[in-house]
Specification:
It is a single chain. By secondary structure, the protein is of the alpha+beta class. The protein has a single domain, classed as archaeoglobus fulgidus dsm 4304 fold (2-Layer Sandwich). Helix content is 33%, strand content 22%. Strand 6 and strand 7 form a beta hairpin. Helix 2 packs parallel to helix 3. The longest helix is centred in the C-terminal third of the chain and has 24 residues. The radius of gyration is 18 Å and the shape is globular. The two termini are 25 Å apart.
């Protein structure tokens, strides 16, 4: 287990989040976002970090780029990385963003024509303790539209796994149905989305950067073959496969 961050570091991180939070754009900035069928959107990215069980330091940082609307893999980048920042709830971005940003920058240098027009992040955006989750952090630093899609509900700002929340989930009839995640202040921080007709369990969508919430939800649904949007599903699958391969190579060398 890594040691928790000290008080000074937490204050530094909070200050950095507050500063970058001011740069988040919560509206559609691209022509394709305003199209009913996302005309002009050709490349969607997905990022994820996967860990070896029992190892909180070494991970695989994964970037995939898929074609749109076919959702076929055009590019993948798997890199073993060593995390240096400690884990603390609400500050995940300080552990993960540097490596995900490096992957995007590597792609932009080497094959700029494959740079995604939007990036799906396995995590939250504005649906966060201080309204600045991993998807916001990566979006602001990369300058790319980003969407946060979490598989589990982050219980923050008065949003809880209450009976009301469960009844709202039960009321989602088909893929594409959603309901707002409303903070105690009345502010809508994201939406719970039934992403597939075949999956009753929702995903939690929030704005990362340079996209509106409604567009983020609509785009997420359009990228779902299963419960999790395909860019994130592929990033998760390929990073885990890469880790398995690395472990096999390591075992062979023993």
């Amino acid at each position: 287990m890594s040691a928790p961050p000290g008080e000074d570091l937490v204050h530094q991180w909070e200050s950095e989040q507050a500063r970058l939070r001011l740069q988040v754009v919560q509206e559609d900035t691209e022509d394709w976002q305003r199209s009913p069928h996302f005309s002009g959107l050709e490349r969607v990215g997905g990022v994820d970090l996967s860990f070896i069980k029992g190892d909180e330091v070494n991970a695989c940082a994964q970037l995939v780029v898929l074609s749109y609307p076919d959702l076929e893999v055009l590019y993948e980048d798997s890199q073993m990385v060593t995390l240096t920042a400690p884990y603390m709830a609400g500050f995940l971005a300080f552990r993960e963003t540097p490596f995900l940003l490096e992957a995007l920058q590597r792609l932009e240098r080497n094959q700029p024509k494959l740079l995604p027009q939007v990036v799906f992040v396995d995590g939250n955006g504005l649906f966060h303790y201080r309204e600045f989750g991993l998807a916001c952090h990566l979006g602001v630093l990369s300058g790319l539209p980003c969407v946060g899609v979490a598989k589990n509900l982050l219980q923050v700002q008065g949003v809880h796994k209450s009976e009301q929340h469960q009844s709202q989930i039960a009321a989602l009839q088909k893929g594409g149905d959603s309901f707002p995640l409303t903070a105690a202040s009345g502010k809508v921080l994201g939406k719970a989305l039934r992403s597939s007709d075949n999956s009753c369990k929702p995903v939690y969508v929030s704005v990362g950067h340079q996209i509106s919430l409604n567009t983020a939800v609509r785009l997420t649904h359009s990228c779902c073959r299963y419960r999790v949007p395909e860019p994130i599903r592929q990033a998760d699958h390929r990073s885990r496969e890469y880790l398995r391969t690395q472990m096999q190579i390591h075992d062979t060398k023993k």
